[in-house]
Every structure is written in structure tokens, then in C-alpha cells.
Write a structure and sequence with these properties.
This is Probable inactive nicotinamidase At3g16190. InterPro entries: Isochorismatase-like_dom (IPR000868), Isochorismatase-like_sf (IPR036380). By secondary structure, the chain is α/β, with parallel strands linked by helices. The chain has a 5-stranded parallel beta sheet, sandwiched between helices. Helix 5 packs parallel to helix 6. The chain is globular.
Length: 194
């Protein structure tokens, strides 16, 4: 990837938070912990190449007043998954935002839904997206489909830096995204060709 293209690219690191990644977490994604080293490497490589890193996280009102209806039962007594300010909402160990990175807070699956992400990317000159994180059938997939609908020039999902509850669910969703023109390299392939 040419330097000019790198400066027009952003990496979205989606939901790499304790409540999704750590075993026993209320929203635990079974494959999440295995991709942490790949996500760390992808973020490091992106920074080296001048690719803008954006941390996309869920943060909810502790009482669940901003959560989807089907999840409201998880928020009782002012405690719930990824509640703003909680340990569960923090990024998993090893992922550390830097000053020049950016953070987007979402309350739904897509990083674009009801956020200013698209406007921010457009005004920052971003035309290409690289996606890592969890989980493939929900937040990854919905963000990717929105990115394609919004006409980003290229959308890439790094296969081994994303995860789902099972390998079968992960691969099925990767195939669906590949079928709509999304690039799906391994981390090694992406690093080699970027």
C-alpha cells in the first residue's frame, strides 16, 4: 500500500473490551482472547505505516437506558455489560490507545449507527477501512456492511484478527463479507502487501 493510500486509511478496532474478551465476562466471545495478539500486532503495524487507529467501543448507561431492548434485562441495579466507567468497558490488557488515536463510542452493533464516525472519516480524508476485533457476525459484519453501503473505496477485514463464538460462525460471516467485495486477508498477508 502506497504511503498516500495509508494516509487515507483507518483501522477500526472494534469492541476489544474486557466484557467481550475475558473468560467469564457477561458478553464473552469465545474466540476473542485468541486474537488479542493479532490485534496488538495489527495496531502496531498500522501505526508504523501511518494508518489512523480508531478505537470503537461500546459504553452503556449502567441502567441500560441506551441499550437494545433485547439486552435490557442484563442491566439491573445500575450494573451491566460495558457500563461506562466500568472495568468491563476498558480495553483488554495489551491494547493501549495513543494520543493521536481516536475513540468512537457506540450503543448498537454498527460503528456507524447513530455516531459521528462517517462524518469524522470523511472530514479526515479517509477512503479505506481495515477492520479488526469482535465479533464477526454482529459488530464487525454490521459495520462492514454499512461501510460498503457508504461507498468506502476499500473495506478490509483481517481474518485472523477478528473472531466469533465459533470458527464456523466466523468463517461463514467472512465468506458473506467477501461476497460483497470486502478484502479478507490474513494478518501476514495484509502486513506483506501494505
Amino acid at each position: 500500500m502506497a504511503a498516500a493510500k495509508c494516509s487515507e486509511t483507518a483501522m477500526l478496532v472494534i469492541d476489544m473490551q474486557n466484557d467481550f474478551i475475558l473468560p467469564g465476562g457477561p458478553m464473552h466471545v469465545a474466540g476473542g482472547q485468541t486474537v488479542v495478539p493479532s490485534v496488538i500486532r495489527a495496531v502496531s503495524f498500522a501505526r508504523q505505516r501511518g494508518i489512523f487507529v480508531i478505537w470503537v467501543v461500546r459504553e452503556h448507561d449502567p441502567w441500560g437506558r441506551d441499550v437494545e431492548l433485547f439486552r435490557q434485562h442484563l442491566y439491573v441495579n445500575g450494573e451491566g455489560p460495558t457500563a461506562k466507567g466500568s472495568k468491563g468497558a476498558q480495553l483488554v490488557n495489551g491494547l493501549i490507545p495513543e494520543e493521536k488515536d481516536y475513540k468512537i463510542v457506540k450503543t448498537r452493533f454498527s460503528a456507524f449507527f447513530n455516531t459521528h464516525l462517517h462524518h469524522f472519516l470523511q472530514t479526515s480524508g479517509i477512503k479505506n477501512l481495515v477492520i479488526v476485533g469482535v465479533q464477526t457476525p454482529n459488530c464487525i459484519r454490521q459495520t462492514v456492511y454499512d461501510a460498503v453501503a457508504l461507498n468506502y473505496q476499500s473495506v478490509t477485514v483481517i481474518v485472523d484478527a477478528t473472531a466469533a463464538a465459533t470458527p464456523e460462525v466466523h468463517i461463514a460471516n467472512i465468506m458473506d463479507m467477501k461476497n460483497i467485495g470486502v478484502e479478507t486477508p490474513t494478518l501476514e498477508e495484509w502486513c506483506t502487501h501494505t
